[in-house]
Amino acid sequence: MRVEFADSMIKQFDEHPSLAFITGDLGYMALEKVQEKYGERFINAGVAEQNMVTVAAVMAHEGFVPFVYSISPFVTLRPYEQIRNDVCLHNLPVKIVGNGGGYGYGIMGATHHNIEDIGALRVLPNMKVYVPFTANDVYDAVNQMVADKSPNYIRLNMGAKVPYNVAPFAQWRKLKSGNKGVVVGTGPVLENICNSAWAEDLEIWVLSVFPIVDLPAELIAAVNRTQKLITIEEHSGECGLRETLSYHLMNELSTPIKMLSLAANGYPSGKYGDQKWHQAENNLGGEGLNNQLENFLK
Amino acid sequence: MESQQHKDLLDKALSIKKRFLGMYKSANAGHVGCSLSVAEVITFVRFAWMKEDDEIILSKGHAAASLYSVLAEDGTLSEDDIKTFYKNDTHLAAHPPVNKVKRIPFATGSLGHGLSLAAGFGISHKLKKNSKTTFCITSDGEINEGSTWEAALFIAHHNLTNVVWLVDRNKLQGYGRTEDVMKLDPLDKKIEAFGFHVIIAEGHNFASLTQAKEEALKSNKPVAIICNTTKGKGWTTYEDKVDCHYLPMKDDQYDIVQREIEAFYNKALSSI
After folding, report:
1. Residue A164 lies in a domain
2. Domain boundary residue, one of A156, A189, A221
């Protein structure tokens, strides 16, 4: 999604003279054209994310719409208090861009992963969290972020590739129908179910913007009908999709249901690998995912 | 500085101090010493230096009463507003609030944010090519925060000469003396090494602050003024002690500090 993101920023520039771009010293082989386009409104704030976020907050106060870019944990968890105090409490349109949420940085290791970002940011006042599903989603997500007068965070990853048409970017999208259970996923990891043999019998939804405001009636009906709900996220379930969706469904259920949560549980073996390897270790892909789905749906 | 202007500043400072002492007394609140420490510095910035559309960032937000009192002195806040300080249903909390008071663009109180706020104003004004200046008053204790140094690097790198950093150097922090807790000296050399033009001033002396301003205006680098101050200046019982950060004033203490600030005023006036 990084290519699509850089392309979006370049496309937005001419129409939006208030845009600015601040990087925390990252973007090699990705942001060079953005830098060229933005000129003096491209700032490399150095490896100093706390200062970077506060500077962006003031720029937003002064009429700019700053996008602030780094690897996901470095631009979310490191300057978390600056995001809360200076950006969110003041409801300023700072646009935080986290590259490589989840296990996106693979073999780079735990310090470069982020399985708490959605949870950490979705609870902040005025904040909207964007989690694109396909690479193409990034264009519409960036459009919405530029138009939104409030703080946003976008989690970039490798875009999903699925064997059916995906509707244009929206908070809720139904990908397909099915009768044996309902899947709600966030982010590209959902493709691991979409591309499995189990997909045929499942109704599949993708959630791409947090916080949840309300649930689609069709989704509620499908959960009540099938009485089986699966959530999948490359993120901690404790503060992620599993937790927030459960709360919103609680008052909508007309029948008991069974729920399977597929979420990132960190580093069960203490070992590292690429993104697919971490997904497999956490039953978010590969044989582990297959076994979980088989047990749940049999 | 002309003697009339000097007298006016002394009058303002006395009025500002009397107001915030009254606020602290009726609220039975602490942080008295923090406001006494910065009283002349904030008075000087507001009434002898900044232009109408410049900003003051009080990074040491725990001295909010001094800022509220300055904003009452210039008419931004009413005396009725001031009466709500510390009470339920007020905008005037113990630390500056979010989006509610003109001239307070950002809430402060968590230390180490202020210099980055000033950096943000500095770079914004530079990009917009306007001539506004941002004055940032930090404590010395909050220089422990790494973010303060991140901001210092940024300000120097972008040569933000539209930022003036004033350090309230009273050498006390939350639980001890700065040099015992986390050594800051030689603070001037450290800040200078980051790329600032560093000026040392006597922070309770308007003539010294005026000299610092004159030197600052000639600088082609960002300026940091280390204002040597005394925490709790005038509260002789607890002057230069950590106690004056936390303790509210009992009646007898309130009498002492009022008497002392009057004496300080009269002495300063006679030296003009």
Report:
1. no
2. A156
| Cα–Cα distance for residue pair A21/B77, rounded to 1 Å | 37
Model confidence at B230: pLDDT above 90: yes
Is A36 an 8 Å CB contact of chain B? no
Instruction: Return the pLDDT at B1.
Output: 81
Query: What domain count does chain A have?
Result: 2
Residue with tokens 């490191």: A78
Q: Cβ of A82 and B116 within 8 Å?
A: yes
Q: Which residues of B touch A51 (CB under 8 A)?
A: 116, 119, 147, 150-151, 153-154
Contact B150 A51 (CB under 8 A): yes
Same domain, A20 and A123: yes
- Would you call A51 and B147 a contact, using CB atoms and an 8 Å cutoff? yes
B191 within 8 A of B156, measured Cβ to Cβ: no
- Domain holding A227, by residue range, is 172-297
- Residue A163 forms part of a structural domain: no
Mean pLDDT of A235-259: 96
pTM of the model: 0.96
pLDDT one-digit tens code per residue, A164-181: 899 999 999 999 999 999
CATH number for position A38: 3.40.50.970
Residue B186: asked if its preceding bond is cis (omega within 30°), the reply is yes
Q: What is the pLDDT of residues A180-197, one digit of tens each?
A: 999 999 999 999 999 999
Residues A100 and A39 in one domain: yes
A-chain CB neighbours of B123 within 8 Å are 43, 55, 58-59
Domains defined for chain B, CATH in brackets: 3-61+112-270 (3.40.50.970)
Whether the CB of B206 is below 8 Å from some CB of chain A: the reply is no
The overall longest dimension of chain A from CA atoms, in Å, is: 59
For residue B126, the distance in angstroms to the closest alpha carbon of chain A comes to 10
Q: What is the CATH number of the domain that holds A265?
A: 3.40.50.920
Chain B interface includes A134 (CB < 8 A): no
Tell me the helices (H) and strands (E) count for chain A, helix number first: 12, 12
Prediction ipTM score: 0.95
Q: Which of A156, A190, A211 is the last residue of a domain?
A: A156
Q: Give pLDDT tens digits for B52-95.
A: 999 999 999 999 999 999 999 999 999 999 999 999 999 999 99
Q: Are residues A144 and A61 in the same domain?
A: yes
Q: Which of residues 93-122 of B touch A (CB under 8 A)?
A: 98-99, 105-107, 110, 112-113, 116-117, 119-121
